[in-house]
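Methods — Computational structure assignment.
A single polypeptide chain was analysed. Its primary sequence is given first, followed by the predicted tertiary structure written as structure tokens.
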Amino acid sequence: MKQQYSGTALVTGASSGIGAATAGMLAKQGWRVVCVARRADRLAEQVRALGSGAIALTLDISDATSVDTLLERLPDDWKTIDVLINCAGHDVGGRHRFDVGSMTEWARTIEINAVGTMRVTHAVVPGMLNRARGHIINIGSTSSVNAYAGGAAYVASKFALNGFTKSILADYRGKGVRVTHILAGLTRTNFVESRLRGDKSGADEFYGTFPVTLKPDDIARTILFAIEQPPHVTIAEMLVIPAS
């Protein structure tokens, strides 16, 4: 007997962290999951663990051509995306005073976190509008509303994501497409290790300065909560922070 799925979700940044946790949780809840990331090796490993209800798609969200061909590179029966979860993020070279950091790296942070999310959404949302059904979930940060020293580019990208999410929420109200912004507090993933160019001890030291951190599954559960609301309910924004 053919398995019945809840729908098809596309998750960017699905090879690690919040994206991987979200893909795994959705698969367990009966969703088909398109797992999207740049690193094909880690992505393949993730998809194998999820079984037949998941497929991998290598995608660089900072590459316009890669994103423009996103849907056409999917199998025909996977092209209808019911939920888009934009998890991919970048902050390599971050946590420096603005004038000390590299402008090339600052620009790449903006390109991935803000422009990349816009690109993927622009590629997927027309199908949702045609079907008058869909859900876009953008994974932001407490940095979407609070600035900190040494985070000029990252904070700017997350403020941009906040504004973008609010704007498309207004664009698509009444058109069957829900829009949700998850403002995640400090979540322990490999994000800081990537920021520090693979310095695991430095990442451990950074996280160790905080009494409590969130786990990727914590954010994945909030995403699932937003998705599982009835069609007339939109969780427009959710702030998730560690207990203290």
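Note: The mean pLDDT is 91.
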